[in-house]
Every structure is written in structure tokens, then in C-alpha cells.
Design brief:
By secondary structure, the chain is α/β, with parallel strands linked by helices. It is 25% helix and 26% strand. The chain has twelve helices and 27 strands.
Length: 471
């Protein structure tokens, strides 16, 4: 008799877990049910800027509704789980319905952080017209409906999502001001030099950037009219978008007695202290670390799929090396490891190319790569990430690894997609086997299905290796 596996959440972590389970033929062991608050199938949240720019939501879809049906997965769309009963092994939804389970996985993700700003609500207590968060497809559609060419927008947040939202609104013809509390844009990934270079690149696209300040009050009579900054300055605004961080969603865990710190506490099996309950993704905390990037979450899902199906009983999650390779409002950025020297013996190598708008930085410890930062040109990133992952020694001349033609990694071993560890050789092989379109290549190899920053390289490989007719 099959066990009942319930997955609470239908974001990117849940989607990846489903892929890993299907690869291990888990539907032969489990009746799988997915509970998603949104009415649509899973989609790539990293690419929300494309929807805000005007593309259809289907452009970033990971799993249309028919995907679940075709694989025997029951998809409860638009259903919010409120509580888990770990003794009775059933979960309850906001409609009062109860669903039995044998194994439950929390993949509830995170929610947008909205700082305590005065004036977010009108005098009658209703949300002020024109104030939005940037987190879901529906958010993007609502923002897009409000955005009119020539109007003014204030985006609160200078991280990845905030800058993506700002660039999309700028492309729609709005006057856009970005507010970032830290002095450095993308301060989680960049130092002051990288942040300044990114700022100059963004300002060339027409955005206005204010760092070291944030919104103190939203001003308006029923609808947004302006934003008062901490400096006291008032900036006109017809639209305010909050994209200044996320917080793990732990309300279901708390209501169910599952131990929580910053997020849901899990061990190396991704198991919580409550028998039969596991957690992955942005809602999970492992050894004091909560991961918000794609690659660590992919690793968690692979381990959990092994554990649940018994494919590899020895599978354990030991934590991840964090690296990010992103395209931020048209500017390529890669960052991983430590951002700066931490020990007296650490070496730091910085290369500035002002005219090209390129900045590269290496942090070297005991002859090996401890961290790297690339802005404006990330061609060396795949080789550097592999050296970082494998703990390989750097050449005596550190500059050699930044000259991409002299990178020590052979082209056949060079990773194109760092999120899924897909090499150039594997991609070329898939193309020659008939994957002659971008969707086919992504589906066959998984390349380009994480952060999406490698898709340009996939297109180049297709143009080089696909048959002439396919091109």
C-alpha cells in the first residue's frame, strides 16, 4: 500500500523536490499531494521581472497544471494549509478541510519583508492604493496595471529583486527612484567597489539611486502621492514597491508545534524534531543557516528525495558553499565565498576596468580561492566556481584565472550552469542528440532552470553546435 506524501507549498523548492522525486520513481511508493496557496502551478520567482516587463506568466512557468496530472500528483491549487496534526497525521486547510498524510514536507518558502513605514494604510484602515510588494505573479500584474508611462515610482530595496523591479518599471517608461538602507547596493553579494560600479551602470539606464536611506512615511489621500525619506526629503510617487528582503514562512510550523528558530529547524536528513515532518528551502534552517539561493536548495531537495525514497539511505545534507551568479537589471554579477580578507594571511586581488565597467576581486587563503566577486564580466565565473567547490590550488600568477582563455579548467569540464552543475560537454552532447531548441536543452539537462543567468551561454552553444536547419 502506498504512503501519503503531502508537500505544503508550491514554490521553487517544492517544484524541484517533485522533479527529484519523479526521477526516483517516488509515485510508485507514494500518493503525492501538493498544497499551493496560489492558483497557478509552480513558476520561477527569480524571473518575475519578465512578467513585470509585460511577458505572460507562462513565460516563467516551471510546472503547468497538466504536469501534476500527467505524473499522478494531486495538486490542490489556491489552498492554504493552516496546521499539521503530527499525532493524527493530518493537515488542515483554511477552508476547514482535513487531509491525511504519512509524511509531510514543509516547503512554505518566505514572504516579503515590509518594514514599519508610516502611512501604508489609509485613514479607514484599508491598504493605501498604490502600495505593493514584489513577490508573486499576481503582484507583478497588479504593479503593471498601476504603472503608467510618465508616472513616478519608488522602489524600496536595492537587492536583486528590488533592482529587477526598478529596471522593469524604468523600461515601462516610469521615473524610478531606488531606496536602499545600506550604503552598498546588493550588499549581501558586493563590496563598496562592486556596489558603486553597479550603481553607475544602473544610473546609465535612467534609474535614480539613493543609498544610505529608506522610506519613513508614505504620503497620500487614499492613494500614494509621495514618500518621505529618513533624511526628511519628500519624493513624489504614484507607485511604491517594497522589495527589501524576505522572511521565512513558519506560521504553519509554529501552529503545529514544530520547533522554529529563525526558520524551521532541520537536521542533516532535512527532518524536523517532529516525526514524519521535513522541511526544505527558504523556510528551513540547517546548522544556523537559512539559504535563499537556488543552488543550496537544489542540493537539499536531492538529499531529501534520496531519504524519502530510500534511493540512497546514507544521503545527508552537510550544508552548502554559497555562490550566486546573476544578471541584475542587465548587469552580470557573480559572487561567492568570503567577500573580503578575514585573516591576516589572506591575499586580496582587485582588478578595475573603469571604462568597461568591470570589477573583479579574488580572496586567496593558503593558496586557494576563499571568495570571488565579478561585476560586468563574469566569463571566468564557471572556472572559479569549480576551483572553489573542489578546493583546488590557484596558479602562482593569480591573474591567470581571470583571463578566461587561460583558465585551468578544460572546456569539456567547464560548468556552464552552476545551479545544476551542468558542464559544457554535457550540453554539447545533448544538442548533438537532438536538443536543438532552448526549451528542449533546458528540459533535458536542467541547465537554465535555476537562476537563469546561463541562458545566454546556452543560446551561444545552440548557435555553435545545433544543426544549421535548427538554427
Amino acid at each position: 500500500m502506498k504512503k501519503r506524501l503531502a508537500i505544503v507549498g508550491n514554490g521553487m523548492a517544492a517544484s524541484r523536490l517533485l522533479d527529484e522525486l519523479v526521477r526516483r520513481n517516488a509515485t510508485a511508493q507514494f500518493e503525492v499531494s501538493v498544497f499551493g496557496e496560489e492558483s497557478r502551478g509552480a513558476y520561477n520567482r527569480i524571473l518575475l521581472g519578465r512578467v513585470l516587463s509585460g511577458e505572460a506568466p507562462e513565460a516563467i512557468a516551471l510546472k503547468p497544471a497538466e504536469w501534476y496530472t500527467a505524473r499522478g500528483v494531486t495538486f490542490h491549487a489556491g489552498v492554504r494549509v493552516t496546521q499539521i496534526d503530527p499525532v493524527g497525521r493530518r493537515l488542515t486547510t483554511s477552508t476547514g478541510d482535513a487531509h491525511p498524510y504519512d509524511v509531510c514536507v514543509l516547503a512554505t518558502g518566505s514572504s516579503p519583508l515590509v518594514p514599519p513605514v508610516a502611512g501604508l494604510k489609509s485613514d479607514d484602515g484599508s491598504p493605501r492604493d498604490g502600495v505593493h510588494v514584489f513577490r508573486t505573479v499576481e503582484d507583478c500584474i497588479a504593479i503593471r496595471d498601476r504603472a503608467k508611462p510618465g508616472s513616478c515610482a519608488v522602489v524600496v530595496g536595492g537587492g536583486l529583486l528590488g533592482l529587477e523591479a526598478a529596471k522593469a518599471l524604468g523600461d515601462l517608461g516610469l521615473h524610478v527612484t531606488v531606496l536602499h538602507l545600506n550604503e552598498v547596493l546588493m550588499s549581501a553579494q558586493l563590496d563598496k567597489h562592486g556596489g558603486e560600479l553597479l550603481r553607475r551602470a544602473l544610473e546609465k539606464t535612467g534609474l535614480f539611486v539613493r543609498t544610505g536611506t529608506t522610506a519613513d512615511e508614505v504620503i497620500g489621500n487614499g492613494h500614494v502621492e509621495a514618500v518621505r525619506l529618513r533624511t526628511g526629503e519628500v519624493v513624489p510617487a504614484d507607485l511604491v514597491v517594497f522589495a527589501c528582503g524576505i522572511v521565512p514562512r513558519v506560521e504553519v510550523a509554529k501552529a503545529s508545534g514544530v520547533p522554529v528558530n529563525r526558520a524551521v529547524l532541520v537536521n542533516d536528513l532535512l527532518a524536523t524534531q517532529v516525526p514524519g515532518v521535513y522541511a526544505v528551502g527558504e523556510c528551513a534552517e540547517h546548522n544556523g543557516q537559512v539559504y535563499g539561493l537556488v543552488q543550496p536548495i537544489w542540493e537539499q531537495c536531492a538529499v531529501l528525495a534520496d531519504v524519502l525514497t530510500g534511493t540512497n539511505p546514507r544521503a545527508r545534507y552537510r550544508g552548502s558553499k554559497i555562490y550566486a551568479r546573476l544578471k541584475v537589471a542587465g548587469v552580470e554579477v557573480a559572487s561567492f565565498g568570503v567577500p573580503d580578507a578575514q585573516l591576516a594571511t589572506d591575499e586580496v586581488l582587485q582588478v578595475f576596468e573603469e571604462r568597461r565597467g568591470v570589477y573583479r576581486k579574488l580572496v586567496v587563503r593558503d593558496g586557494k580561492l576563499a571568495g570571488a566577486m565579478l561585476v560586468g564580466c563574469v566569463e571566468a565565473a564557471p572556472a572559479l566556481v569549480q576551483m572553489f567547490d573542489r578546493d583546488e590550488p590557484l596558479p602562482q600568477n593569480r591573474l591567470d584565472v581571470l583571463a578566461t582563455g587561460n583558465a585551468p579548467t578544460a572546456a569539456t569540464e567547464r560548468e556552464i550552469c552552476n545551479c545544476n552543475h551542468v558542464t559544457e560537454a554535457a550540453l554539447v552532447g545533448a544538442i548533438r542528440d537532438g536538443c536543438d531548441t532552448l526549451p528542449a536543452l533546458c528540459e533535458a539537462t536542467r541547465a537554465g532552470t535555476g537562476c537563469g543567468s546561463c541562458r545566454g551561454q546556452l543560446v551561444t552553444l545552440l548557435a555553435t553546435h545545433a544543426p544549421v536547419a535548427a538554427r
